[in-house]
Design goal:
This protein is mainly beta. It contains 3 helices and 9 strands. β4 and β5 form a beta hairpin.
């Protein structure tokens, strides 16, 4: 793609400015193939966002949210389903942006948060990354919650970070 920085929050090519990405930091699996902001990238510009896990903040009775670190039980890195775009400014400068696709939480996360990033299993990563494959019937089933038994949720220190 590029070696220049990629910003968080997808900026569709038709956006009036980069601020459009501020509200597009996540794409919902249930609507990603149809929503105008994401559907073209879903067909042609899919990526994996690599991480060793992710954080969710659980709502508590008080004003402080409880942090949890969620990772694969294997300890291996995971690839979150992502989309990317390049927006061109009126001056001709390119801005590269991305978003993560989220889905409903699996049983391990449901008590912490109602959504989770889509983790693309290793065996399906080539299908996800193939820009020639825009087949919704092949791609949409990949946007399911990752198996709860293969994940670990660890409560983190609730103090300031």
């Amino acid at each position: 793609m590029t070696s220049s920085p990629i910003i968080w929050g997808l900026i569709p090519p038709w956006a009036k400015g980069p601020a459009a990405g501020n509200s597009l930091i996540n794409a919902r699996a249930e609507t990603v193939a149809a929503k105008p902001s994401f559907r073209h990238a879903f067909r042609k510009r899919r990526c994996l966002i690599l991480a060793d896990g992710f954080y969710e903040w659980q709502q508590t009775e008080g004003p402080v949210k409880r942090p949890w670190f969620i990772h694969l039980r294997s300890g291996q890195p995971c690839g979150f389903a992502g989309l990317y775009e390049t927006w061109t400014s009126p001056e001709g400068g390119a801005v590269h942006s991305c978003t993560i696709i989220t889905t409903r939480a699996n049983q391990a996360l449901a008590a912490i948060h109602d959504r989770m990033p889509v983790i693309v299993p290793g065996a399906a990563q080539a299908v996800w990354l193939n820009p020639e494959n825009g087949c919704r019937e092949e791609l949409l089933p990949l946007l399911a919650p990752y198996p709860a038994a293969e994940m670990v949720c660890r409560q983190q220190y609730p103090g300031p970070f």
